[in-house]
Design goal:
This protein is an alpha+beta fold and 222 residues long. It has a single domain (10-217), classed as Sulfite Oxidase, Chain A, domain 2. It contains four helices and eleven strands. Strands 1, 4, 5, 8, 9 and 10 form a six-stranded mixed β-sheet that branches. Strands 3-2-11-6-7 form a five-stranded mixed β-sheet. Strand 4 and strand 5 (105-116) form a beta hairpin. The chain binds the ligand Nc1nc2c(c(=O)[nH]1)N[C@H]1C(S)=C(S)[C@@H](COP(=O)(O)O)O[C@H]1N2 and molybdenum atom (MO). Molybdenum atom (MO) binds at residues 55, 101-103, 184.
Length: 222
Amino acid sequence: MADDDITAEPGFRDKLVASKQAWARAGRLLTGKDADPATDRLPPGQRLTDNWPVLDLGIQPDVPRDQWELTVGGLVETPVTWNFAALMAEPQFQDTSDIHCVTSWSRYDNRWQGVSTRHLIDVVRPTPEAAHVVLHGYDGYVTNLRLADFVDDDCLLAHSHDGKPITREHGGPVRVIIPRYYLWKSAKWLKAIEFVAADHPGFWETRGYHNIADPWLEQRYS
Ligand SMILES: Nc1nc2c(c(=O)[nH]1)N[C@H]1C(S)=C(S)[C@@H](COP(=O)(O)O)O[C@H]1N2
Ligand SMILES: [Mo]
């Protein structure tokens, strides 16, 4: 699955990307403090917000529910392509989790609905060689995760947030939600999921952001 070159798209915000790369080089927002998810709710260097900022690269694909399609392939026994009706026909999963964005805001108690990534792997059955996952958005965005992190028990392909369809600006009709890591791992406008043997760093991971992205360890930058 070739990466689309998002940097060539009209509207791509090259100045924004350059300034975020400069933040990464400067280690901006790093506190060096520890926090423990067992006793703390806010990771180090984060502040709580009630609103929900929108972050993208300047491109917000308009994919109506009836045109949305997800391709799941790579190192799996049973590749699948799901349209929105097919996604809704799978067992539905709900989970409430906190969002932590690397730009330092956190938002508590987001109620997500969709299909769990655990159910997805029951359907597609990754082969023993599959160790990493690459997520592709309709905007050409790419991000990577270790397979074990992708199938944590609170991860899902989400179509709804707090009981309403996820809006276009927040990645609807379907986005990934990986609560345990900074939000850049949660691909919006989900188009494809690829199971691979070797790690494949994504858009931000090749631009100075941390490959794993654990907010409790302040893994903001590489
Ligand atoms: N497809 C896609 N997914 C994406 C992004 C993007 O530009 N394109 N940005 C990431 C980043 S950097 C962040 S912080 C979150 C923002 O999600 P939000 O706009 O819903 O807050 O989406 C992540 N997922
Ligand atoms: Mo971000």
